[in-house]
Amino acid sequence: MQRHLFVLFLLALTQITGWGMVSVLPVIATTVATEFQTSLPMIFVGTSVMFVAMGLAAPWTGRAFRRFGPRSVMAAGAGMIAGGLCLLALAPGLLVFWAAWVLIGIAGSMFLTTSAYAYIADYAEDRARSLIGTLMLVTGLAGSVFWPITAFLDGLVGWRATILVYAGIMALVICPLVLIGLPGNWNSDRTGHQQKKCAQGSCLRPSCDRHRFEQFCYVWH
Known about the structure:
Layout: H1 2-22, H2 25-36, H3 40-68, H4 70-89, H5 94-111, H6 114-124, H7 128-139, H8 142-157, H9 159-181, H10 186-199, H11 205-220
């Protein structure tokens, strides 16, 4: 029970941080629009681009979960979010600004929400439903936590420096925290072993399919 609570705390911390740092546009949009000499809708295209990129990258991310495990994919996603935030902070104009959001969206599909649910489903098994429900509620606090922080930093050092600070936190804190702090997934190792046996014809295919189906149900219900 205690180890499940620790995993939940760690995932909640990293997910709140991740979502808080990629949800900065409502706070900095006016400043960015003024600097780029464009309209607010053109700035908020970045958010749309991010979610489209997340959706398009989802099938590839799902295969990465099966091959490398959710924890490794999450750590790589956190590092990519840091890279996207760096590009965002250095963007000279709208095209690079939007490109940065594409990278953040791809990275978000690897790190945000779904990856955390996949990790819990793989790690907690019978307790996955309750842990996922709790994580969903807690992650909703991201805006409440980070919008005031972002507004304060924006007024203090400007939006570009604020984004660079967030990039540093993602790269130097969140990425190692995921990779080192989250326990390894025994079930991922077992699933990989089962799949190898299935490929060699030494196990019944329905058992492997059933295991994947159970994980899918845990994640989405």
